[in-house]
Amino acid sequence: MNDDDTGTTSDRHDVTGDQQRHAPRITRRRALALAGAGVVGVAGAGSVGGYAVGRTHERRKVQEVAAKAAVPAAPPLFTTLVNQPGQAAGDIFITDMGETAATLIADGAGNSLWSSAGAKSYANMRLQTYQGRPVITWWESHSTGLAAYADGQTVIEDVAHNVITRVQKHGDVSPDEHEFSITPRGTAYIVSYVRTKADLRPVKGPKDGLIMNGIFEEVDLATGEVLHHWESLDHVALTESHAGVPKDPTEPYDYFHINSVAPTPDGNVIISARHTWALYKVDLQTGAVRWRLGGKKSDFDLPASATFAWQHDAQFEDPRTIRLFDNGSDGEVTVTDESQVLWFAVDEAARRARLVRRLVHPAKISAHAMGNAQRLDNGNLFVGWGTAQRISEFSEDGTLLFDATLPDVSYRAFRQVWR
């Protein structure tokens, strides 16, 4: 995708009293190339302020007129149901994945503080650190639905809405909505879905079938160089999947469905695959799968009570504990009636894992897709309930401190301090 054809517009909202100021900006963009295909695009941006009214009495008149004609306050971005003391500091980062697609930052009351719009699809907005400074990142596409899987890019902006860089399509790999994580070494983890042909007879499909190959890459954000490239079809068999083969031969079989990549304590990565109900520790240097947790070929013995299914957002919360968001159902196959956050104590050397904690919503929410959990600085846990259109914050003892309903779906949700 050409960086000059994105069509995305951004508006920053800084509200003081009854006045609201909007600073238009002029953006200059240029794309870097990798082997003839743009991977990382870099932009420089400036801003042009408004005009000044010279004489004091004229300035006061303008201010009085502006105050009287002030635009009414916008309605909140979400409906707050629970708002108790003890919440962590920070504002709430969400994306509207509906017809009014946008990235949004709101305070705890749902008041809009920052937004971007102009694309047709947005996901995975959050605050990260790049080159020693805070940046706001997200994924966007000018397509919708499944088409967006192969037509997206990731964006890095500073908090003043200046585009720093983008990771764009290169070869067959187009950044997908499911993951964009910046590492301390200035690289980014991205995932992609690449349509290819495969023999689906092992899963009772056609010999010349279509399949979605799950891709993970680590990309150097400064140069665009792809440092690591991993494909699910090279390491994970079709028969590990719990997903059914589509009846429509033109629809690719999404057997793996990669949806999160996170670092492991020893410098490798842990990959979550929704459709195999499993987590994979992958050696960054060789691409080999060191172990599987969950799924049909788990290297760890898990009791039936610890089974997770259709999960998202697997992270090492500490060197011996993995936390994940367990959807429990995809809307057709249900393993648990409610979605939950699960913690597993893992002894990698002994291949032992045990479920040490689970957290559910008091309303027994079931999110059939999407979702995440975030450990906050004060020990609380912030949860985005994906397609259930809910966001919550829990204290360390599981008390519900904040709860709100969203007007549309947000793939993930975060509470972060950015101002």
Automatic annotation (TrEMBL):
The keyword Membrane applies. Pfam families: Arylsulfotran_2. Residues 10-21 have a biased composition (Basic and acidic residues). Keywords: Membrane, Transmembrane, Transmembrane helix. Residues 1-24 are annotated as: Disordered. The chain crosses the membrane at residues 31-53. InterPro entries: Arylsulfate_ST (IPR053143), ASST-like (IPR039535), TAT_signal (IPR006311), WD40/YVTN_repeat-like_dom_sf (IPR015943). PROSITE patterns: TAT (PS51318). PANTHER family: ASST-DOMAIN-CONTAINING PROTEIN, PQQ ENZYME REPEAT PROTEIN-RELATED. This is Arylsulfotransferase (ASST). It comes from Microlunatus spumicola.
